[in-house]
Known about the structure:
5 helices; 29% strand; alpha/beta; 6 strands; single chain; 181 residues; 6-stranded mixed sheet
Amino acid sequence: MKKITGFAITALLMLGHIACTPNKAQLPVLKAGDLRASVIESIKNPFLKTDTLILDGDWEFCGNSDPDKLPVVFGLKLDSDQYKKDLSRHLSLRVTSMNDFNKAMDTVLKYRFNNKYPESLWDTCRVNKVAASIRAEQFTPEQVAVYESYVYNNQEKSIKKLFALKNGRWTFAIIDTTSPH
């Protein structure tokens, strides 16, 4: 009887430990500010003749997505004022968020075109501007994937980078690049 009770207690303790051990991807990223700085330093504009980077960093998920299959999102916060300034300085380009760009488009539409959308407004307003989607997925507190997608004049380029914390520093490797056209 003592063996069975001891086994049952051991099994319950192990189950409790497993149930209470958090998923490593759910733990906070280590040196998050350093990671953000490393991501900014790693970004290169793949298009030469641009004057503005329009930045979108928001993830969007279908309402029917299985929660177990959703990525653990790491907020790069590139659309915050400080990181936009850092990115602008690094790229020598004006950097604006997609939200701010859309607000400017709405203002132009309202006051210049009386809310009647001319066919060429979007194309006219995005001349020399590259739209960038930059998102991060956390695998562990020491490993984060960054997905970059760029669109300029109907040309697309994508880059996937894997960042890893090694010896106290964030480093990265380019895992994949695509240019569909």
